[in-house]
Amino acid sequence: MAAELPGDDRWVADPRFELKELRRPSFTVLKKGGLDPEGVGAYIDRLERLAKDFASFTRELESRITHARGEVREAKLAERRAVDEAMLAAFEAKERIILEAEERAWEIEEEARRRATALQESTSRSSGDRDGVAELQDQLNTSRTQVEDLEIQVDRWRTRAARLEEKLQQPAASETDGDGKAVVSAAERRAQALLAAARAEAAHITAGAEAEAARRAETVTSGPDGSDPDGAADHAVEATLVVETARAEAAEIVAAARRQAAAVMSEAEANAARQAEKATTAAARELERVKQRSDEQTARLEADRAAVTTARAEADREAKTLLAEARTSAATIVEKAEADAEARSAEAVAAAQAEADRLLAGATQDAEATRAAGDAAKHTGEELAAKLAQAQQLAEAAAADRTAAAKALTTARTEAAAQTEEMLAAARTQAEEIIATAVDRRTAEERALVQSREKVRRQSAELVGVARRQAEEILTDATKKRGAADAVLAKAEADRETAERLLVETTAEARRQRDSLVAA
Predict the structure, then answer these.
(1) Beta-carbon contacts of residue 76 (< 8 Å; ≥ 6 apart)
(2) Residue 226 region by backbone torsions, left for phi larger than 0, else alpha for psi between -120 and 50, else beta
């Protein structure tokens, strides 16, 4: 027969790593008592080998975690590079738009100067200016579309990085999958096996004693060949009484052996029940502690992941909001500056045209009056020259106003560019701070995860040691109980030998009495 010991497969941290060799091995019970030492030694060797395999698996898991961290860092660096490239592209687009706007403004100013010089083409030139403004607006819209495309590309890079990070954040924490019932069941089966073995051997000894007593009694009553000896019929009753007395003594000896075996079995049952109850309680407590720790660690990891996700989402929203505000402010400032410049240029051109028309009309009237009056009115020609000089001064003043308007437009654009740069710098700084905070949280989370895995690994090693010690204690206890059972059986054997000896002596005495009776 075979006795079973509890195995332990609760420390399976990966589906590919199964401790199949620990699942309730069977040990051979020797005839002389006790378990087979070779089988026990082989089982302990397997335990040590599997412990080494588990340590190797733990190191492999740590290397996988390190590799995953490296990939996460590379993904974050790629994300940062993508964000930096997008920001640089946005800045270049902004600078390109501003330069194109400035060039277009200078072209508008040159157009206004040409209008002041040639008033006859003012209408066509004005329409040309309006077409130029429309073209500038189209270019601004195209640049804004390019900036929006760059932002969409940045969002795609961030989404890919987030997916990669989520893919690499697969939980690798070890979990227990036993509830302690295996230990209790194995202990119960072991106790039942020991009881069955002891009972079977006791029954065998009892049956052997009874059979031997019956055989010897039959030999005494019937003779060796089964025939009734001559001259013994008179004393058959006396011989039968002697044999019955021997049988009664043998039965009493066998009953005493049975009582002792029953007492040993009761004690073994009580010890097995206590051991099973103790193992059940310890396994339940340990399982509850492990489950509670696992739940706490899982809850903390989930909370940290949710915090990182929330921080990343907030950073993205704030960055997008700041970029949108910066674009809106820049567009508003540029539009306002363009409107102011266009209004001032239009006012200056209109004033110059009106003044030139008025002066031209006055000069024409004066010229006609002068031609009508003749050469006698020379002083009128001098006044006309003065008026022409005054008209020239007014034209110069209009040019100065246009120059001032151009300077104001340049100043407004410079201020708009500075404000845009400040807002973008603030947005980028805030986004970097939020990302740095998220990275710190992620680092803390990874550190906590490594610590928890190390703690679980230590606990698993301790539990393997405890299981090994419990197995050794169970083996020791089984050896002791087997020794006690062997002692009881030895005593029963001695009692049987005593009964046989008494039976032999009684038989010999009966024969002597029969012989004496026959001789008499």
Answers:
(1) 161, 439
(2) left
Residues 6+ apart with CB under 8 A from 289: none
In tens digits, what is the pLDDT along the chain, a chain of 520 residues?
333 333 344 334 444 444 454 555 566 666 666 667 777 777 777 777 877 887 888 788 888 888 888 887 887 788 778 777 777 876 777 677 677 766 766 776 676 667 667 655 555 544 455 555 555 556 556 655 655 665 565 566 556 555 655 554 444 333 333 444 454 455 455 545 555 555 555 555 555 555 555 554 555 445 445 444 444 444 455 555 555 655 565 556 555 555 655 555 556 556 656 665 666 676 667 667 766 766 676 666 666 566 556 655 655 565 565 556 555 655 665 566 566 656 766 676 666 667 666 766 766 676 566 566 555 555 655 666 676 677 667 767 767 776 776 777 677 667 766 776 776 676 667 667 777 776 787 778 778 778 877 877 787 677 767 766 776 777 677 677 777 767 776 776 777 777 777 777 777 777 787 777 777 6
Cβ atoms of 213 and 497 within 8 Å: the answer is: no
What are the distances in angstroms from CA 156 to CA 113, 311, 384? 49, 18, 74
**Rounded Cα–Cα distance for residues 132 and 126 (Å):** 10
Q: How far apart are CA 186 and CA 340, in angstroms?
A: 93
The DSSP H or E segment spanning 310 is helix 236-373
Amino acid, res. 509? E
Contacts of 43 (CB under 8 A, 6+ apart): 5, 25, 27, 471
Tokens standing for 237?
């009753």
Quote the radius of gyration of the chain (alpha carbons, Å): 56
Pick the closest to residue 454 from 303, 289, 297, 292 (CA basis).
297
Q: What angle do CA 357, 358, 364 make, to 5 degrees?
A: 85
Residues 181, 182, 183, 186, Cα dihedral to 10°: 120
**In angstroms, how far is CA 188 from the centroid of its own chain?**
38
How many angstroms separate the CA atoms of 6 and 21, rounded? Answer: 12
Tally the domains of the chain.
1
pTM of the model: 0.25
Domain limits for position 464: 2-370+379-519
